[in-house]
Amino acid sequence: MVDVHFRYPDGQPGESGGLNGVTWTVRDGTFAAVLGASGSGKSTLLQHLNGLLRPARGEIRVGDFRIEAGKPFREAAALRRRVGLVFQFPEQQLFAETLEQDLGFGPKNFGATDEEAREAARRALRLLGMDESLLTAGPEQLSDGQRRKAAIATVLAMDPDMLVLDEPTVSLDQASRDELMRLLHRLCKREGKTVVVVSHRLEEVIPYADECLLLERGRVRFQGPAEALLARPRLLEEAGFPLPPALRLSRLLAERFHLREPPASGRTGAEAFAERLCRLLELPAALHGREDDGPCGTG
To answer: Mind listing the pLDDT tens digit for each residue in 27-86?
Structure first.
């Protein structure tokens, strides 16, 4: 997107979450995190990526698609097949009697035969590590975590190139959040999907994100590697973004014992924090590097 401006009409929900000259590029096959306080424009930005919202100024470019302010755009359906958008609480949109019917609805709308829709449903479940026996189950028979993954699978069944998710882990327990983030990272790195995640949990996305976009009142405050953002906690605080407990403790230790901020290297936040703490306590470092389909952590 290039110099995108957007304003909600007065009185509409979300009117404080507009965009003010946002320019941002997401490379194919990237795992990108969109961060910011409430009302910073995160959800508004996501809805521009598949044409649900149109810029008042500027333009959106997705592959060969181009949405320009003030000009008609007649390829919305084709764009939305390429860019799959998953809203908050997507499981509320499951409506059919069986999961197979829900997963096949999108492909059939784009002209798939019954057999093609069934195969698309099976493939989507496999990508999310779900058993195909669940195809005959109704939504009420699934756990909270399974319903969330099933709802994401309804978007994956249309085989988008880009998967865009608005707070995908909200209301899930810790184990389900961790599992879902690992699955999304796997879709990016093993299946070649471009994944864009809005989150208010820095510690949740940093282990996976290749790059971050930090918004404040509709403006870009930072864009770049996740490690570089992690090394600038004051910027996060100024943007009204709550720091995770580990980062707050790390900063307090740095100030109290005059430790240098970790360099913006290839290390993740958890690794840098653990190394700093071990150095302070004169303990041997015991760090775990990030795997392709799992989060990093401390031993």
So the answer is: 999 999 999 888 899 999 999 999 999 999 999 999 999 999 999 999 998 999 899 999
**Amino acid in position 70:** G
What is the rounded distance in angstroms from the CA atom of residue 50 to the CA atom of residue 77? 9
Domains, the chain, with CATH or none: 2-226 (3.40.50.300), 244-298 (no CATH)
What pTM was estimated for this model as a whole? 0.81
Task: Return the residue matching tokens 């290749």.
Answer: 210
- DSSP β-bridge partners for residue 166: 198
Q: Which residues contact 52 (CB under 8 A, 6 or more apart)?
A: 85
Q: Which long-range contacts (CB under 8 A, 24 or more apart) does 233-237 make?
A: 236/35, 236/202
